[in-house]
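Good day; I would like, with your permission, to put a structural problem before you. I would ask you to consider whether the tokens describe a fold that such a sequence might reasonably adopt. The full record is reproduced below for your convenience:
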Amino acid sequence: MKESQEATGQRILVIDDEAAIRRFLHSALSSDEFILHEADSGHGGLSAAAALRPDLILLDLGLPDLEGIEVIRRIREWSQVPIIVLSVREREDDKVAALDAGADDYLTKPFGVGELLARMRASLRRSAVQLSEPVFSSGDLTVDLNLRRVTVEGAEVQLTPTEYDLLRLLITHADKVITHSQILKQIWGVAYQDQPQVLRVTISNLRKKVERDPSRPRHITTEPGVGYRFKQVQP
């Protein structure tokens, strides 16, 4: 495990076996905002995560000793630290597997520093959010989780129990991608994991009730081939 120069920012653990990528990230991210730590293997990354308790992990999938997916699974057994996958693998199956295993975001190499920084800041903001907040607001949408009351522009909207459970799941993972499989399993149960049409219909109905323009949704966005993401909108 290698560590960057002393700094006072948030701890970022880079787990990648490519020295060139680690050098690039070190150059791009080293600042007072971040303290960078590095590991060049899966087992080294797991040890570093346990020892350092980083604020965020940047993880490659193609590690020499342990698949990145397995690294995610092992970390998720004890930690909810944000994990962003940085990988050359572009297939939807790889993205779905990583997100299903517990990754928070997935960025395909090569990537721009600006996009990486934006995704890191978003993940760090989400990790600081207190999920116990009883009232969630995003733009003109407000959800009172205690009262199970949903309003749009101040007017209450009536959701079916399934629509409400789906909306609640999305907002409690705001700005994160949730895969079709994750949603189907949590809302309808394991038996429905191969029935994505059920999810599509419910998402369509939900958008008609909470989106100002369901054909151009601002809140519930589609991640093609992967799942859905609730995007928090500023008032």
Q: What stands out?
A: The domain at 10-130 is CATH 3.40.50.2300 (Rossmann fold). Residues 2-7 have pLDDT under 50 and may be disordered. The chain has two domains: 10-130, 135-230.
